User: Fold this.
Amino acid sequence: MVFTQVNSVPLCATLSIFFVDPGEHAMVLGGTEWEDGMRTARKKKRVGRPRSPERRPVLAARVPEQFHAQILASAAISGRNASEELMARAQQSYEWEAARGTVNAMLAEAKRITARAQKVALEQTLQERGYTKVQGIEGAAWLEPGVSASRWIFANIDPIVLQKMLDRAAMRALELAGVKS
Assistant:
């Protein structure tokens, strides 16, 4: 865009006449001191480092001097600045936390499988050695070889528990016979 004088007469007495070239460098050709201050001969350059194309939020924290020194030392070793080092370490802690959750789940499953395998192996060993398994209402008992299960039950059982066992056995027998109670 070009502003010029017409027949060597300014278009307006207070209007500055200036020329702007395609590179956006302004050349003031005339005008008041105030108008000259408003325009520059060249576009001002930005000072400082260029902005990152991706804007990220800032997270600031006060840390002990010893921690600050550790971060700076590890940043120097890894070739990162302090902010990058903190981000990398924070991200790593989240990854480790997720991995630890997976490992804990695997350990829990391994413990469950191991406990079941130990129980099966123990029961098999007891049977091989002649022990007798007696199932009760609230669990099972293993009787030594040579001990009669029925005698032991009647000698050691609480009468109320015995009655419950007999009632359950009777109900089960009726169900198997097809009789509705």
